Amino acid sequence: MKTLNYKFDNLQPEYDLSSLASPEEVLFLDIETTGFSPKSAFVYLIGAAYYQNGCWNGTQWFAQTQEEEDRIIKSFFQFAKRYRMLIHFNGNQFDLPFLEGRIAHLGLNCSFDHFEGIDLYKRILPCRNILRLDSCKQKSLETFLGLTREDRYNGGELISVYKEYTANPSDQLLEPLLIHNRDDLWGLVELLPLLAYSDLFNRPVKVHKVQANHYKNYQGQRMQELMIYMKLSAPVPIPLSIQSGGCHFRCENREGVLRVPVYNEEMKFFYSDYKNYYYLPEEDVAMHKSVASFVEKSHRIQATAATCYTRKFSSYLPQWDYVFEPFFKREYKSPLLFFELTEEFKTDRKAFSLYASHLLSMLGKGEKK
């Protein structure tokens, strides 16, 4: 068994790792195997990256023969005991189940139970369409960020190289095996800034400024919108611009701005207990029976869910869930929801931060309503 230690020079990802855990408690993991199934293949290389003494370091445990597999697994877990956060790329689907399968096969007393975990692939995958990514493979994401690596192989291509090494060990054959794993570890750390996009759509944002803006649409009509300026929890590595549901969002570094249409029109508020209401067709409004009982029977009918409403002309903002109440609709069956832009709401910075987070969540899901 070979154990190799080294430092990653000039590796400083622009992402606050402490938002996940203390940097000294985080361990990045990548493994190399002779196949896809732990029943017929084994792990020959385990690599780990970690932050220590103010810089990024790496350690690799390499099995020179299959008989050394149990030694590299035990050595890795002995080393990993000091860490509590495990970060990997698609490890939930491959690395962790593969290692667990080999641990069971070899009868080892090793476990991931004490770890919290983050699968970068699973965090980034929901942002694939928004980021216009052709692929979510690790090398594709590295290319998206403008990163280049020394390694030119993939894991599958190196299986034959490892088999040749076990038959005829040499530094020439060992080097590409180690470089590939080392570059995967380097890439894992470098991909951390991509978590900023996941944070954007899943973490609260802080609004620091809101202002009204007027413009003319294509028909020459005067329209109104809100410009909502916010600070992001993490800087995005590449500027992003998306729009959906009439809303537009753009961000760069730590700054983001939402443009949200303001609808100045009549909306309807629907009462849920429609059985207790009459509908007055001439007034086009619903009235509670305790009051409407005094209205002549010829001017009232039993309200239905679709006619049990009151109307109000005001300024409204769109929402895609029941975040703010009371909520309004244009019609009963309309999927669009709105809430009133009151004078009180205009001065409530916390409410605007909640609203901005709601809109970003909607934009992140790619809603088309």
Shape summary:
elongated
Q: Span between N and C termini?
A: 58 Å
Helix tally equals: 10
Cα radius of gyration in angstroms: 29 Å
Residues in helix, %: 25-40%
Tell me the layout of helices and strands.
Layout: E1 2-8, E2 26-33, E3 43-52, E4 55-62, H1 69-80, E5 85-88, H2 95-106, E6 116-119, H3 120-124, H4 138-144, H5 155-167, H6 171-190, H7 195-202, E7 206-216, E8 222-244, E9 247-270, E10 277-280, E11 285-288, H8 289-292, E12 301-302, E13 309-319, E14 327-328, E15 337-340, H9 343-346, H10 349-365
Parallel strand pairs: 2-5, 5-6
Antiparallel strand pairs: 1-4, 2-3, 3-4, 7-8, 8-9, 9-13, 10-11, 10-12, 13-15, 14-15
Helix pairs in contact: 5-6
Would you kindly provide a written description of the structure presented here, covering whatever features stand out?
The chain is of the alpha+beta class and 369 residues long. It has two domains: 2-198, Ribonuclease H-like superfamily/Ribonuclease H (Nucleotidyltransferase, domain 5), CATH 3.30.420.10; 203-271 and 308-365, no CATH class. The chain has ten helices and 15 strands. Strand 8 and strand 9 (247-270) form a beta hairpin.
Give structural attributes:
369 residues; alpha+beta; Nucleotidyltransferase, domain 5
Give a quick summary of the entry.
The chain is of the alpha+beta class and 369 residues long. It is 28% helix and 34% strand. The protein contains ten helices and 15 strands.
